[in-house]
Design brief:
The complex is a heterodimer of chains A (401) and B (381).
Chain A (H helix, E strand, L loop, with lengths): L6 H17 L2 H8 L6 H14 L17 H13 L7 H14 L2 H12 L5 E4 L15 E6 L5 E9 L10 E7 L10 E7 L5 E6 L8 E12 L3 E2 L5 H14 L4 H17 L12 H29 L8 H23 L25 H8 L9 H12 L3
Helix pairs in contact in A: 1-4, 4-8, 5-6, 5-7, 8-9, 8-10, 9-10, 10-11, 10-12
Chain B lengths: L6 H17 L2 H9 L6 H9 L19 H14 L5 H15 L4 H9 L5 E4 L15 E5 L2 E12 L6 E7 L10 E7 L5 E7 L5 E12 L4 E2 L6 H36 L1 E2 L2 E2 L4 H27 L4 H30 L9 H14 L4 H16 L1
Parallel strand pairs in B: 1-4
Antiparallel strand pairs in B: 2-3, 3-7, 4-5, 5-8, 6-7, 9-10
Helix pairs in contact in B: 1-4, 4-7, 5-6, 5-7, 7-8, 7-9, 7-10, 8-9, 9-10, 9-11
The chains are: A alpha+beta (401), B alpha+beta (381).
Bound molecules: flavin-adenine dinucleotide.
């Protein structure tokens, strides 16, 4: 049992660090610093740079563009990205859909869809949740009827509504769970469809979240015609795909490297912000204690994740234990934003979204957006299977209760 | 022992509640807070003229209705339930508090104008370097003939864009954090050299950075003793804390009720989600937090009349409980609403945002724990 980095690992870290330093777009960095909303092109720019280097989809099978990195290398890569405050490659294509395609898709489907995902050419969104089907995803009602059209080809005609669809306003394509058999048991009548978001009959309507951002949407499907060859896996077997995908979604969700970086930033803020008695906030025993507790919890999470990774590298896929990572990872993200808001003191209150910078700063830069981040981060214990649902999973699947 | 309200207080509650039910629904509020000015002067006018509540907490000889802190509590709780943004706290509780306690020359006239809805006040006390320490001041008031010249920068002055007057804390002497040398002034916001930068706050109110650039004020602007106003400031801030606790109770009630209602009606897995025991226990814990918040708010109001040390300790204790309740109830209200809790369209998120800012207002949980601890040690010594 050891956690030593080999000389090769150290060389890899140096390579990764240098690559980011030389290639991360300055324009993107400026926008991040100024908390400007990122455009579609902004999101994709870093992805495309990584794709050129062959690093956009590390976990994939090598034949489709995976890097073949060891778990240690993946760990180093996520650390280096967090350290440099890069944006993340969006998970919908690379981490969520792609494993379903390369696990369950036909060879044509792999050839048709994987390169676009890998190269950041096609933007994917996830159409699972519905107004009536959140935690109880299997109760989804969006209906797909199979027909033979005048052109002699088979299609699904899809009708229904999806909701909370993240960044659907930018999406070229979406992967959807739809009901193809209304009479079967809920889980047994679902299929997994890939739908071109430009198809006639699709309407995307913005949902504004409480901090004022536009990252989620309603998606209405009104007689949308989808070729049958856009279905992944067998008809009525979509639930198998969905379950596999959810496990992948959850294990990525711990966000250890990003939280470590967040903790570092919190410390910086607490070093410059003053406590009531004029010393830096970080030397205030009450505040310092909370930061220390958070760091210890983050260490516990990190070692739990490393154990999970070690298990995966010995051939066991991500199991229901990944629910631990989801619960603790999101709680830590939430506490980080909570402490950042607390550190900002009075300057947590101003709402400066869209206030032009040239009017002069209001409060210290590091206080900007902290309240918004705190409000927005409440989502992490709700999405990706809520933390209550994760506890149900552990109770049933791990503890056998 | 008696925790009941007088008939007058109950009537006051009913008057406020029914006015707000008719004029302050969620959508109307939302339109108002997004408007250019961010508030509704006509509502303020109605408070003064139609409801007559702006005088509820002032003595009768000053034109008020003869009530006191409990009347403020009743009004603030109802305001919390409707997320009222209009500046009752700054004007009546804080502005009125300073004027009542210190009774400077001209106070009667200003109080009359407060009651008539003509004067609105914002409390300019916080400074960028000061956090929650009321004595940590670098704003100065230099003696100039009979009057004073003010210089300095006040941070996040809530309600300042709507105010006709500011109550300003400043140093007339002493070092940056000394208890001595602190004075209070009532400043006309139109005075030359008062520069404001206005902005919205994350909970739907408005605030300003206020800069005093050689602002000349007359001798009558001084409230309380020159250089010796910290005890007065602490008293008024404790009253403001009590009122904020009351507002929080209104906010917390709505968060809790809204969550019960939602979980009873929202179905997943073929049953209302309120039937899941983990959620029931969560809502019970929210309820316990709410009940304890209400209890501590009553306690806080009862103790406002005690000697300074006892009063301060009690108010800090209340604010600690309120801060914790705001966090727990607020976070779980969102959590139990699932995705719906995250939307700007639902009221629940707006109550959560207000609850979140209340956590830090007039001192965070940590600040008041420390103040409580210090006062307890002092008492034991
Ligand atoms: C910002 C954001 C982005 C999202 N992005 C996407 C996306 O891109 N694509 C997509 O398909 N979906 C997305 N979602 C939807 C997300 O997956 C759902 O919100 C989530 O599954 C919860 O469902 P719900 O919102 O309907 O809440 P509900 O299922 O109604 O849950 C409400 C509350 O009840 C609790 N609860 C429910 N059932 C149980 C139970 N059996 N035991 C105990 N407690 C229970 C929940 O934990 C929660 O606290 C997103 C959500 C958010 C907030």
């Amino acid at each position: 049992m050891d956690l030593d980095f080999s000389p090769q690992d150290a060389a890899f870290r140096a390579e990764a660090r240098a690559f980011i330093a030389e290639n991360y777009p300055q324009a993107l960095r400026d926008k991040q610093r100024d908390e400007e909303a990122l455009s579609r092109e902004d999101f994709l720019s870093w992805h495309r740079i990584l794709a050129k280097k062959g690093w956009s989809a590390p976990s994939w099978p090598k034949e489709w563009g995976g890097t073949g990195w060891t778990p240690t290398q993946k760990y180093i890569w996520s650390e280096e990205q967090a350290r440099a405050d890069t944006i993340s490659v969006l998970p919908f294509g690379v981490n969520m859909l792609a494993p379903v395609v390369y696990t369950f898709g036909t060879h044509e489907q792999k050839e048709r869809f994987l390169p676009g995902i890998r190269d950041g050419l096609v933007w994917w969104c996830q159409g699972y949740s519905e107004p009536g089907a959140g935690s109880d995803l299997a109760s989804l009602k969006t209906k797909a009827e199979r027909i033979t059209a005048d052109d002699g080809k088979e299609y699904y005609i899809v009708n229904g509504q999806k909701t909370w669809t993240t960044l659907a306003q930018h999406a070229d394509w979406g992967f959807f769970l739809v009901r193809t058999d209304a009479n079967a048991k809920p889980q047994a009548g679902i299929s997994f469809l890939l739908i071109d978001m430009k198809s006639p009959g699709i309407t995307v309507r913005p949902l504004i979240t409480l901090e004022g951002g536009h990252e989620v949407n309603d998606v209405f499907l009104d007689n949308v015609k989808v070729p049958v060859e856009n279905r992944i896996h067998h008809e009525n077997q979509g639930w198998t795909c969905a379950k596999a995908l959810l496990l992948h979604e959850r294990s990525g969700i711990a966000g250890v490297a990003r939280s470590k970086r967040g903790l570092e930033r919190l410390r910086q803020v607490a070093r410059t912000q003053l406590a009531d008695d004029a010393g830096p906030l970080l030397s205030d025993p009450f505040f310092k204690r909370k930061v220390a507790e958070l760091e210890i919890d983050l260490t516990a999470l990190e070692y739990t994740e490393l154990r999970t990774l070690a298990g995966e590298s010995s051939g066991k896929g991500p199991g229901p234990e990944s629910s631990i990572l989801k619960i603790k990872g999101t709680e830590i993200q939430q506490r980080l934003t909570d402490l950042a808001l607390e550190a900002a003191g009075h300057y947590g209150a101003p709402y400066l979204r869209g206030v032009p910078h040239n009017l002069g700063a209001i409060g210290p830069d590091e206080a900007h957006g902290v309240a918004g981040a705190y409000f927005n981060t409440r989502k992490t214990s709700i999405y990706g299977g809520s933390n209550e649902i994760q506890r149900n999973i552990i109770a049933k699947a791990v503890l056998g209760l | 022992m008696d925790f009941s309200f007088t008939d007058e207080q109950s009537m006051l509650r009913d008057t406020v509640a029914s006015y707000l039910a008719d004029h302050y629904d969620f959508d109307t509020r939302r339109t108002a807070i997004k408007s250019a000015s961010g508030w509704r002067p006509e509502v303020w006018k109605a408070f003064a003229e139609e409801l007559g509540i702006l005088g509820a907490a002032f003595p009768e000889d000053l034109g008020g209705l003869g009530g006191g802190p409990i009347d403020n509590m009743v009004v603030m709780e109802e305001f919390g339930k409707a997320l009222v943004v209009e500046p009752y706290l700054g004007t009546v509780v804080i502005g009125g508090g300073f004027l009542k306690h210190a009774a400077p020359a001209g106070a009667e006239e200003i109080i009359g104008k407060i009651i008539a809805g003509e004067v609105t006040i914002a409390f300019a006390y916080a400074e960028p370097q000061g956090r929650y320490n009321l004595a940590n001041l670098v704003t100065t008031a230099r003696k100039d003939g009979a009057g004073y010249i003010l210089n300095g920068h006040k941070a996040v002055v809530i309600g300042a864009p709507w105010a006709t007057h500011l109550i300003v804390t400043a140093r007339t002497g002493g070092g940056q954090r000394d208890a001595g040398g602190v004075s209070v002034f009532l400043v006309d916001k139109t005075a030359g050299g008062v520069v404001t930068r206005d902005y919205p706050t994350v909970d739907g109110r408005r605030a300003s950075e206020v800069f005093f650039e050689n602002v000349s004020v007359p001798a009558e602007a001084l409230i309380g003793a020159e250089g010796d106003a910290l005890p007065l400031i602490e008293q008024v801030v404790d009253e403001a804390i009590a009122a904020t606790c009351a507002e929080a109770c209104g906010v917390l009630r709505r968060l809790h009720e809204g969550t019960l209602e939602y979980t009873k009606q929202r179905k997943q897995f073929g049953q209302p989600i309120a039937s899941f025991q983990v959620l029931q226990h969560r809502m019970v814990d929210m309820f316990i937090q709410l009940e304890q918040a209400i209890s501590m708010t009553y306690m806080a109001h009862i103790k406002l009349g005690e000697p300074a040390a006892e009063r301060a300790k009690s108010l800090s204790a209340a604010k600690v409980q309120i801060g914790r309740a705001c966090k727990f109830v607020g976070q779980n209200a969102i959590q139990l609403h699932g995705g719906m809790g995250m939307t700007d369209e639902m009221a629940i998120g707006h109550y959560f945002k207000r609850a979140t800012l209340i956590e830090g207002e007039f001192g965070s949980v940590d600040h008041h724990l420390r103040r409580y601890e210090t006062l307890s040690l002092d008492a034991a010594a």
